[in-house]
Amino acid sequence: MSRIELAQGAGGRGMQELLDQVIRPALSNPLLDQGHDGAYLPGQGLVMTTDSYVVSPLFFPGGNIGKLAVCGTVNDLAMCGAEPLWLSLGLIIEAGFEYDDLQKILASLAQTAKEAGVVVVTGDTKVVEAGKGDGIYINTTGIGRSRLAQPFSPKALKVGDRLLINGGLAEHGLAILAARESLPFETPPISDCACLHGLVETMLATCPEIRLLRDPTRGGLAALGNELASASSLSILLKEKDLPIKSPVQAALQMLGIDPLSVANEGKLVAFCPEASAEKLLKVMQAHPLGRDSAIIGEVIERQSAPLWIQTQIGTRRLVEMPLGEQLPRIC
Amino acid sequence: MSRIELAQGAGGRGMQELLDQVIRPALSNPLLDQGHDGAYLPGQGLVMTTDSYVVSPLFFPGGNIGKLAVCGTVNDLAMCGAEPLWLSLGLIIEAGFEYDDLQKILASLAQTAKEAGVVVVTGDTKVVEAGKGDGIYINTTGIGRSRLAQPFSPKALKVGDRLLINGGLAEHGLAILAARESLPFETPPISDCACLHGLVETMLATCPEIRLLRDPTRGGLAALGNELASASSLSILLKEKDLPIKSPVQAALQMLGIDPLSVANEGKLVAFCPEASAEKLLKVMQAHPLGRDSAIIGEVIERQSAPLWIQTQIGTRRLVEMPLGEQLPRIC
C-alpha cells in the first residue's frame, strides 16, 4: 500500500494501521503516547484535545457540522474527566460556499458552545479553490480542567468491571448515511449529537470510582471495545440482549446489512466501573436527560484469544472484529 | 456577495470583511475580541493559538507544509510573548495521497517541533475522498506560557515608537509563487520559514519595554501595518529606503508586478518599541542568527487620513492600502 485510502479515516482497522505505522512513530513522545482522546498537560491540571470535522452532508437531522464541531471536542474533554473551558476554531472553506450556510453553521456552533459553557477564544480562516474542499472543514481544539486525581487509563480496567452506555446505539451514523444517500425513511433517523460533559459531571460526582470513559464515535462500540481491551491486556464481553438500540434504527441497519456495533455515535459514552458500583451509576445516568435509556451492556473478562466478544441473544459467544472502516467514511 | 471567494482567505481586505461581517459577530466574546494572533487564557498564564495550513504546493524551497505547520503556530505564540510548549495536530488527508509524502511531511514536522522544544501532545486524522481536498491540510493548535506581565495590545502603541523587522521581506510568498507557477529562476527563491521564539526570547530579555510583536504573514507588512494602526487609532509610517529586501527578491517581484509589502513572510516579525530602545533592540536582533539583516523600518505617527503610509525613496509619502488578497492565495 503506497497511498492513503478513504477507509483509513473511518476509525477502523485501516486507520489504526495508518496511526500505528506512520503517524505515531513519526511523532512518538510520552504525552502523545498516552493514547487518550486528549492529553493531560503536565503540571497544569489541564487537558487538550483536537478534532477536525469533515462530515458529509454538512447539515443532517439532529445537527450540522457546527454543532458537531463543538459536541465532538467537548465530549473528548469530558471523556478525559475534564470540564470543558476553551475552544479554538480553524475553518477551511471552499471558494463558492454560500454565506448563508456559513452563517447557519456558525450560529449553531456558537449556540452549542454557549449551552456547553465553552468559549471560542481564537480562530483561523482559510479559503481553498472550488474542488479542493467540500464546503467547509472545521477543526476545534479544546482545553479543559481535569476533575480527576489520576488520568484515566485502560490499564486501570479490572476483570469484572461493568460497561454502561447512556442510550441507543448507532443513531448518528445512520442519520448521516440516510441523509447522504437520501434513503427513503418515513421519519428520517436523527443524530444523537449532544454535549455529554454535564452527564459526565453528575456521573463522576456520584461515582468517582469510574475507571474509564470513552465515546464510541468513528468505528462505534466495536472499535472502542477492541482498542480498550487491547490496551488493557484484558478482554471485553458485550451482552447483545442488553444493548439499547431503538427498533427503527435496528430495523434500518438490518435492512442495510450494517452491524450497529460498528456505527458511529456522537452523543453516547461508555463508562467502565467496578461491578459493585454499576447499579448506582446506572441510576444516576438514567436520571439525566441524556441518559434515560442507559444500560449495563457488558463486562471486562480475562484475556481471551481476541479482545472483544459478544454474547448473542441465543447465548453463544462470537468475537467482534475491529471494523475495517469502509462502510461509513466522513461520519464526523 | 453571497458566496465565499478565494481572495477572502488571503489575509487582505476580503478576509477582513469575512471576519468582521460574518465570523466575529457570530462568535463575539471578550477573549476572542482581544484580536491577537492568540488568546491569553484567563488565570492560567497560558496562550492558545490555532492555524490551519493549506499551502500549495506542499513542498517548496525552504520547507514544506509540515515545517510550516510548526513554525507558523510557534510564531503566533512567540508574537504573544509566550514560550511555546504543546501542539495538537489535526490532519485532513485526501484519499490517494502518497504514504511517502506523508512520511516526509511528518518527519519534517517532528524535526521542527523537536528543534523548537514543542511537543505534539494529541492529534486527529481524517481522510476525505479524492477531489475533496488537496493532498493534505494540517491544523496545529499551540499552547504556550506567557512571558509578559501584561498581554501585548495595539492600544499600547505611542507616537514615536519605532518598528523593527528581523530581515528581508517577501521571501516566503515569492518562494511559493515561484514553486507553484514553475517560474524560471536560475536560483529558486527560498522561503524564510523559521521558528522565531528563540529570537523573541532574547529580544524580550534585553528589551522588556517592547510594546508589541506581530508576524507579517498573509497580507504581508501592508496588512500588518493597516491592522495595527487601525487598532491603535494611530498611523504608521514606513521608510522605503530602510526596508530590507534582498535584491533578487526585489527584482523578481518588480518583474511580476507584485508589491513586496503585500507578500507573506514566515520567518519575520515586526517589533514595536519606544524610540529610546530602538538601537539597543536592533543590536540584539542583529546578533541573532535569525536577525542578521534586522532594520528599523518606520515609526508610529499621529493619526492621519489613512492608517499606513510609506516615505518613498524620493522623499514623497504615499498611503499603503490593505491588500485585496487576490494575488497570492494559499500561501500558508
TrEMBL record, chains A, B:
A GO biological process held by the record: protein maturation
Pfam families the record matches: AIRS, AIRS_C
CDD domains the record matches: HypE
Residue ranges constituting the PurM-like C-terminal domain according to the UniProt record: 158-305
Boundaries of every PurM-like N-terminal domain copy: 36-145
SUPFAM superfamilies, sorted: PurM C-terminal domain-like, PurM N-terminal domain-like
Family that this chain belongs to: Belongs to the HypE family.
Protein name: Hydrogenase expression/formation protein HypE
